[in-house]
Records
---
Amino acid sequence: MITPEKEEQEKEKEYIVKSENEEEQEEVEIIKSENEEREKVENVEPEKEKCKESAFSKTPIPKELAGQPSRRYIEDYDLRSLLGKGGFGTVYLAKHKATGEKVAVKALHKQGIKKERAAKSVILEKNILKLAKRNQNPFLVGLFASFRSEHHVCLVTDYCAGGDLSTYLKENPLPRERVVFYSGCVVLGLQFLHQHNIIHRDIKPENILLDSDGYAKITDYGVAKRTLSYGNTTWSKGGTCYYMAPEMIKEIGYTKSVDWWAFGIMIYRMLTAKYPFNGSDRAILKHNITENQPQFPDTMSEDSIDIIERLLNKNPEMRLGSTDEDAEDVKKCSFYKDIDFDALAKKQIEPPYIPKKKTTGCFRRIFCRRKKRIAMTEEGCEEPLNLFPEVFKNFECSLFLPSDI
Ligand SMILES: Nc1ncnc2c1ncn2[C@@H]1O[C@H](COP(=O)(O)OP(=O)(O)OP(=O)(O)O)[C@@H](O)[C@H]1O
Ligand SMILES: [Mg+2]
């Protein structure tokens, strides 16, 4: 049996290129957003920030940001503790020295970005973080800054003090009220992403964070996919095996409805602390996902079974959320009968649980206990790498909102 721990180690991030065409489409989208950035950095003034210019931070500062506290250099942050280590990055809790703001620094080692394709995924991740922040969507983690250091590409995001949902799930299911509330937040976050033609592709409790007020936010757009239009079909594989929809496994093309499948697996897991599909190896797991039906515990309520069964419909066209109504259909389920989504969107519903002030559940305690200054790992680095200069041309960003300036 593949345990959740083993899954953590084996986290599968598959990038199988199925269609040259699709690659080209993605490039068009990225070039589009790069151009948008270029427009914004027109009329730049000479660099006025305090820190020494790094060889990897050459993007000029837009005029309106001159005089703002620097965010674009690793020296601008005090790294405090380790928040998480994923398949791609190491995430640190850090304090922005100039403002005292707590942030999360996701450091991606440049050694792991050897292919242009991986480089473009990082750009997309940054662009989605930026989109989320600009729109101030309460259910998506947003960008604070992005920059390159000698050996890393860093994405700095708003810190979520409650940690990720998997830390609350280790042995026990979550109370139903919390599952309804957190999944309701995810419905609103997914709605926003889908409206912007973004398929997240890695919805799972590890990628859902709780902010200090107790609201849930989607994070980790590292395997997200941008499509050309709302219902577009796409082929390349990406995500975590336990949460992969049957049509993705079968490689027959898929749409944004793979996110609703993963969302169904996540609700099942939160309510039971188990996976609906398991297997002693990856092939058996994939067989179970494509061929078998989930079993529900006797104690599970009818409306929980109803929403999970409809989300785990193996036919993507019949799956809940697959129509143009997308999230609106999901909101109508009786599972959400007690949630007023308009009030939730305005954060007017009181969260069922407020994270404790000193949450260390998600920290590696060893770092907290020793109060040791930590530094980013630099194993394997001899020479600083200058990655795909064209792809990373406008990467450096300090995202101040108009209200900050
Ligand atoms: N903004 C944040 N606030 C608090 N914790 C965070 C934040 N961002 C990330 N984390 C923690 O770090 C973990 C890894 O982050 P993230 O998922 O972005 O990295 P990843 O390398 O893409 O992960 P994976 O490959 O496991 O999906 C999260 O599961 C969470 O526990
Ligand atoms: Mg993750």
---
Amino acid sequence: MDLVSEIKKKKEFKSLDDSFVNNALNKVVKENQLKLEKDSEEIIKKTRAFLREVYGAFVSKGFNKRDKLLSMIKSLDDIETHQKILKQHISTAERIPYYTQVYSSIFAITGQPKSVLDIAAGLNPVSYPFLKCRPKYYAYELSETDAEFLQKYFDKMKIDGKALHGDITLLSEMQKLPSADVCFLFKALDTLESVRWDVTKELFSNINCKWIVASFPMKSLGGRKIMPEKRLSWFLRIISQFEYTKITIGDELFFVIRKA
Ligand SMILES: C[S@@+](CC[C@H](N)C(=O)[O-])C[C@H]1O[C@@H](n2cnc3c(N)ncnc32)[C@H](O)[C@@H]1O
């Protein structure tokens, strides 16, 4: 049985690259000491659960509505339709009341960027009007379909933007990242660490940006409070060599890190 095709029979995973699904499957097999030949059902179940954790969990039920909403959007001033699109992904939905404050607080430290690199972007690039400046925007996402959507948004809004797709935990992908003034890693590192443990250090050394802004949720998806300081000791160790500022906005903790 072709396990990758079997896993991708679920609609929610259709847009993921076969190679990413295959790597996830191998990780599940290794970590659970399963056998490809005889444990196929368990492998499929566990791989789907893992993919849901890193990709599917953030997508709200109406995610497919986004294309329809994009066709309705008039301009960058059409904040109402922008917000309707941002509502289609849990991370951006939670940030809607705070976007203006998020970007003004970050840029008060970094200065207004001429270019932005948004890694594991989700739908965050659609918050472009809240930036209140017009940087070149590179967005990097896991699935091709999601990157295509972001490219359509950039093109329609006449934003100088490029959407890229792939698995950013792979060194070969990190090395292809464009340079920019500011890199956003919003609510990305917990997810990327679960795809490949200890990836943050390698990612930081391959990001060619003056500033890195990494954020973490202070609540779990279920709404439970999580203690960021204790949980993030691994991350604080990594950034201890850099100058950084911590900002809390809503239920999100941002680290604005001077990289160069
Ligand atoms: C919690 S969401 C955050 C989205 C966005 N940064 C935000 O805060 O609005 C995590 C995102 O990471 C993406 N992702 C997961 N694994 C990835 C990988 N290996 N490479 C690139 N993106 C990945 C998911 O598709 C998802 O959009």
